[in-house]
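Appendix B. Raw example, untouched.
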Amino acid sequence: MRISILVATVFALALTACAPPTPGLFYPTLVPTPAFDPADGFVIGKSRVPAGKYPFVELWYNTVGYSRDGECKGARMIDFPTYDFSDGRLKLYTGLANLWDANRDIIGFFGLEHTNEGAMGGGVDSLLSAIQQLPFAAGNTSIQSILEDGTLALQVADGRAYWLHPGQAWIEYFESDPDPSCHIIIISRLTNFGLLEGENIDLAGTLLAPAMTATP
């Protein structure tokens, strides 16, 4: 499962080099660091999303391996997708990964996806969670607040906060050389897909009607 919606603007955060390049291996050109708009004036824990609309945010970890021996140690095939997002529609095949308070409304949805490529194997694994309270932890970042148009106030690892508008993505790169013949790049991409209508959200056969509250 991969997303077919076009992302209007994709940004990259940083390149963290954990080791010097392994001789003889090919490395892709990574996207340089751009500038984000610092977030200010927001209220921590506040969601201003209109009733009947739900933000969808996805954190995607893509692990790519490069090896002279054909496969890196720890490579594996994965195949456990639990949701799909395409053409503006979010479809869940199983139950939500977390629904910690059945009496609290659902603010939005958070998808966590892992994919392997190259010498690290292949396939996809994913989980869909309900956002029921802010701040909401999302990998190395946290969603502090959400504006009316779905813009996120995103706090990053160093404590600074930035606006992540619909269509934008916060990307980090992590590199390692677990052995002399293998080089691994992990791409972490947190994408704000904006606001979805309730009728475009299918929770395992049940459409999310406007202002629907969480159910066990």
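End of appendix B.
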